[in-house]
Design goal:
Length: 459
């Protein structure tokens, strides 16, 4: 029998079906919730505040890219695109070692927690030394990310990424891509090593970098391996028109179409971006039960295009949000721009609503909590018995929330102003952010500053 080690109480708590009032929340010794009781008496439970939400899962991150945010905003060519950005990114990636990665990721994860993300899916392909040779421990870079997440206190789904070829035609990796490369046996051995470390705050999953970087046969071998059977599976897909054209030319199908036709895509899968889809692909992806991994600020920054959100919501498609390149680290901004992109494209307002709610904020927020947790493969993003204790307490004293009630609270949280309303954050049963401050933010920030200054070559 599990014992409840802490009892909390809040006036309004976001439960799976929406707001509930006067909620008692119990937590056990494993950092999981033991109860969420509506209309309970406060008794001697500790008062959390007026508004409590689940922590938001972040379903797509390349941690090292946090340190290059802002370095790719100068025009190098009138036709700058994702592909010219990628060259700058590769040059930066070539300088990051395990200690650097740990320092950058810890800083990023502190920023995520302060913004209200309590779990992150790390799509990790920076595996080897810059010349492509494995480190003495081939898991060195993975371990750096695990250690960074532990230091910051954020939940982690680590997705070591299989990356084998430089294009749909199967060409070899370029010099700058060499440190990403694994063969299938080496990759499965890495998963074997890492899966032994799984715990309540750490899950291991599979990432296939993209259709252009992993041959079909390798995908099938990895997915058939016993160790991957129950793991989340993530893949980048249809982010760029160039990728759609290459896929059509070499496989006679569009990327999402090809994936759905050839691999067993189901609720374990997260298709990251899925930007360029036909109406039929959109409907089929929704019906597959997979999660669309949407990264609106990065997709805007890279000039990717717009996801067909309205049609996908109408088909009850699952989706979540990721900060991806970390040009922004805020669930508020991701969800805000997810909606604004649609408004700009359609010249209408209030696009992302469903039969469940006519509130844009509630629709987006509820979907991202659910889809994010599904993609991460963890019991999180929800306040109910058995889920991990990931809680956010909003700053009820903010003038932004004055005159608001339950009906307008989430809309205000997502669409009003720029002040961070996330005041306290509990992740995995621990208070990691109190009164807007992370428990170890000074030390982690100082180490980050030293690291990034050295990497940038500025003294
Ligand atoms: Zn990505």
């Amino acid at each position: 029998m599990e014992t409840t080690v802490a009892n909390y109480f809040a006036d309004h708590v976001w439960l799976p079906h929406g707001w509930a009032n006067q909620v008692g929340i119990g937590m056990n010794e494993r950092g999981a919730l033991s109860a969420a009781d509506v209309q309970s008496a406060r008794g001697d439970a500790r008062y959390l505040g007026r508004y409590v939400l689940p922590g938001m899962p972040n379903l797509h991150s390349h941690a090292f890219q946090r340190a290059m945010a802002g370095l790719a905003e100068r025009q190098t060519n009138p036709s700058d695109s994702f592909w010219t950005w990628r060259e700058i990114m590769y040059a930066f990636a070539g300088r990051v070692g395990p200690d650097d990665l740990r320092a950058i990721a810890a800083q990023l994860y502190v920023e995520m927690l302060k913004a209200g993300y309590s779990h992150v899916c790390e799509f990790h392909y920076l595996h080897h030394q810059p010349d492509g040779k494995p480190y003495a421990d081939p898991a060195a870079m993975s371990l750096a990310l695990i250690e960074a997440a532990r230091e910051a206190g954020i939940g982690l789904t680590l997705l070591p990424t299989l990356y084998m070829t430089g294009g749909f035609d199967g060409r070899a990796l370029s010099e700058r891509q060499r440190r990403f490369g694994f063969d299938v046996d080496g990759y499965l051995a890495l998963l074997q090593q890492l899966v032994k470390m799984e715990n309540a705050a750490l899950r291991i999953g599979v990432a296939l970098h993209s259709l252009r970087a992993v041959p079909e046969r390798a995908m099938r071998t990895v997915l058939a391996a016993e160790i991957t059977r129950a793991m989340p599976v993530h893949i980048h897909i249809a982010e760029q028109i160039g990728e759609v054209q290459d896929c059509l030319a070499l496989r006679n199908a569009r990327p999402v179409e090809w994936l759905l036709d050839n691999l067993p895509v189901d609720a374990r899968w997260c298709l990251v971006h899925a930007t360029h889809m036909t109406a039929q692909e959109t409907q089929r992806l929704a019906q597959s039960g997979a999660v669309a991994g949407l990264c609106p600020t990065t997709e805007a920054n890279l000039g990717d295009g717009l996801f067909p959100l309205k049609a996908y919501i109408n088909d009850n498609g699952a989706f979540g949000i990721g900060s991806d390149s970390h040009i922004s680290v805020s669930p508020v901004e991701e969800l805000r721009w997810l909606e604004y992109g649609q408004r700009l494209a359609t010249r209408h307002r209030n696009i992302a609503v469903s039969a469940m709610s006519h509130s844009v904020g509630e629709t987006l927020h509820a979907a991202a909590l659910r889809g994010g947790a599904q993609a991460a493969g963890v019991a999180a993003g929800v306040i109910e018995a058995g889920a991990r204790a990931d809680l956010i307490v909003l700053d009820e004293s903010s003038s932004l929330l004055a005159g608001r009630d339950e009906a307008s609270l989430i809309d205000t949280f997502l669409f009003a102003g720029n002040a961070n309303l996330v005041r306290h954050v509990m992740a995995n049963g621990e208070w990691v952010v109190r009164d807007f401050r992370h428990r170890d933010e000074e030390r982690i920030a100082a180490r980050y500053r030293d690291t990034v200054t050295r990497l940038a070559g500025i003294s």
